[in-house]
Amino acid sequence: MAHRFSIREVARQAGVSDATVDRVLHSRPGVRPATIGLVRQAIADLEAQSTQLELSGRRFMIDVVVDAPARFHMAARRALEAELPLLRPAVFRARFHMRERWGSGSLVLQLDAIARRGSHGVLLKAPDTPEIAAAIQRLARAGIPVVTFVTDVPGSPRLAYVGMDNRAAGATAAYLMHSWLAGRHGSVAVTLSNGIFQGEEERETGFRSTMRALGGRREVHYLPASDGLDGTAYEVMRAALAEHQDLSGLYSPGGGNPGLARAWRESGHLPKVFIGHDLNPENALLLSDGTLSVVLHHNLQGDMHSACRALMHFHGALPGTWAPPSTPIDVITPYNMPAGPHR
């Protein structure tokens, strides 16, 4: 593991002791494989954030904790690492704690470990549960601010939420669905990744209330959660298509769109209107080939900027107080997709 960083730098990045890093670097016994992985990842993160180490200014070490599919892990990491060099006058470094499925209580244990170890702030994408809210309370008592992003934990003492107005996003999806299906028969399906994520619940609520307000009598089926994983989403959609043979529209507030699309193709047709969220590589491909009708997108790097700015205000690196505004909702079609790689 050749590298150019001091043992202390690696230890701080990994959240372990100097002695542990020394044992890993010299291949000495007595270190758990998971800890070896932490040290290796810390060195990789330091390499990715190397430009930050050369800057001068007030320094912050933050932790990014994410419960989401792997495709979102990479999007969040890329967005933050792209934003880090732009965060003047401060210098930020980040430790990442990301899993597709946190086991029962393990996400809380991770947040409690951060509270014990210390941090200048936590950027958190997590379910809205009493246990998570209580962990955020413990972080706040330890003087560690938490900024939720993409999905909120509103009953907690988090410092701020950054992201789109999810209820407005769901309402936008309903407006598009109602308009494009006008004069056509058929029901509509809505599938969530997980019902305990507040952001997706808000999108579903906005969709449901707006479809009702628009005066249509079109039946809307709310399908079981898929965890945002393609395989699960495929099975959920296949069962729905077998049960509701008049389905003509689909709103996907979460993930798993390749799996959803596969089930539709195998049924012999595609939805007349298919609305998804986030212009990731999978959705960009589905939009390009006409499977997705539209993607409701927001700038994740902008979320990271707002989150870090909120932390700078909290710590006095910027004067006064500041409340992050909602991230604008971009309606992306095949004809206005941004050029270049998608997150």
UniProtKB/TrEMBL annotation:
Residues 5-46 form the HTH lacI-type domain. PROSITE patterns: HTH_LACI_1 (PS00356), HTH_LACI_2 (PS50932). It comes from the Bacteria. SUPFAM superfamilies: lambda repressor-like DNA-binding domains, Periplasmic binding protein-like I. It holds the Pfam family Peripla_BP_4. The keyword Transcription applies. InterPro entries: HTH_LacI, Lambda_DNA-bd_dom_sf, Peripla_BP_I, SBP_2_dom. Keywords: DNA-binding, Transcription, Transcription regulation. This is LacI family transcriptional regulator. It comes from Paeniglutamicibacter psychrophenolicus. The lineage of its organism: Bacteria, Bacillati, Actinomycetota, Actinomycetes, Micrococcales.
